[in-house]
Amino acid sequence: LRTSVANRCIPRVEAATGKQEPSRGVKSRRDTLRETTKSLVISGLLSSALSAPERVLADEDQAPDRVPPSPIVKKVYFDVAVNEEDIGRIVIGVYNDGSQGQERFMQLAEGAGAGLDYRRSLFSFVSPDKSFIKNGGVGSITGYGSKEISLAGGKGSRELTKEVDSQKRSHDRPGIVSLVIRSPEPPPAPEKKLVAESGRLVTVEEMPKGYVEPNGSEFVITTQPVPYLDKTNLVVGEVLEGIEVISKISNLPTSKPKGKDDPFFKIGKSIGDSRAVFMATRFGRPFARVQIVDSGVLS
After folding, report:
1. Nearest to 247, CA basis, from 92, 77, 133
2. Where would you tag: which of 77, 99, 220, 299 has the fewest CB atoms within 10 A of its CB?
3. What is the spatial distance between Cα 70 and Cα 95, in angstroms, rounded to a whole number?
4. What are the distances in angstroms from CA 154 to CA 109, 113, 141, 196, 265?
């Protein structure tokens, strides 16, 4: 190819000068011109080849920061019933991001001990715009009985807050599954009480009755993009099968927050009144009993 290019260039040069050199035994100007042309062509090709990787690296440096799709490390399933009538199975693919929250979610789906199991847990909330449903999780993150069990991420949800703050995944589409790590609203002011301790009265602070701080076991499943959950929830996976089951749950009748905009309710909740705090926990609750009757990890 290089010789062919050089040979095609020589007649053009000779035509431009109007001269042709006769064949001689010594090195002619035609031979010199041919070698010079070959050198120029080879030099141009080498320069182009060497600069190509630099252009590729420059393009890669300017590429936007994207989250590479992580493989699914495991699949978990939830068999769901409404008022003890089976409505189907939800299969969730758990991401392989190395997250403690993802590991905790799989532990609870499989069952980690007495009381540390999603079996028999309830879907206790449907958002007012039906953008997500929430499972109430387990009552105690350390389980029940004499032997204390430790889940991934430690006791409660505080150790998982760093994973929420650094996560690159988002609630950007239907079927995203995430653990509730923070409450979407600031906690109410604690109540002060006098209690007897070692023969004397001391003042202690307790959270108002009805308020429950997230313990890192509740989880939500989205039915549409819900970006504001990125600040409170840790994404652990996505729904692979059973999106129609989630749709059935999200369309169930729920208790309506008729008094939510009432000024007395707002004041009561802000000061930690136990009645207002308890009332807030009833908003969005399905009237039907929506329960996970069986769960586990698929092989």
Report:
1. 133
2. 299
3. 6
4. 17, 15, 9, 32, 35
Extended strands (E) in the chain: 72-82, 85-95, 123-126, 132-135, 176-180, 191-197, 200-206, 219-222, 233-241, 290-298
250 within 8 A of 133, measured Cβ to Cβ: yes
For the chain, how long is the longest CA-to-CA vector?
Answer: 124
Q: Whole-model pTM?
A: 0.66
**φ/ψ of residue 2, rounded to 5:** -65, -40
- Summarised one tens digit per residue, pLDDT across range 43-97 is 555 455 445 445 544 444 554 555 555 588 999 999 999 999 999 999 999 999 9
**Best CA proximity match to 292, nearest among 75, 101, 90:** 90
Rounded to the nearest 5 degrees, what angle is found at the Cα of 78, between the Cα atoms of 102 and 220?
Answer: 55
